[in-house]
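Researcher: Quick test of sequence recovery. Tokens follow.
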């Protein structure tokens, strides 16, 4: 399944790396932002698209921005006909990153103490 990550900063980068490592059935095709101003053109070797220029409205959008922006992002996505989206809240982010770092063998899980 193809997905695109909304955001192009630290939360989005971490989510991308974790999804790529942990979930081989998912293909991250890039990052999506509301505007390219202040965002990179490429992140983790993947393109960063402006929301309005991304053609596939059916793609799953993984929202990976600070939680206080989720409502605004969801409204923006819905207004632009992107109806398939999942928000990465702080709990989901912590679980995802815990699994990612455990898989890498970098950090011991706090849940295993």
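Model:
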């Amino acid at each position: 399944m193809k997905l695109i990550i909304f955001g192009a900063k630290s939360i989005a980068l971490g989510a991308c790396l974790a999804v790529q490592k942990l979930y081989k059935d998912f293909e991250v095709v890039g990052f999506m932002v509301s505007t390219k101003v202040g965002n990179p053109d490429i992140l983790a070797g993947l393109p960063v698209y402006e929301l309005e220029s991304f053609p596939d409205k059916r793609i799953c959008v993984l929202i990976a921005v600070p939680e206080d922006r989720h409502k605004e992002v969801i409204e923006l996505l819905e207004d632009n006909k992107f109806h398939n989206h999942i928000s990465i809240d702080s709990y989901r982010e912590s679980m995802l990153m815990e699994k990612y770092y455990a898989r890498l063998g970098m950090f011991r899980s706090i849940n295993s103490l």
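The mean pLDDT is 93.
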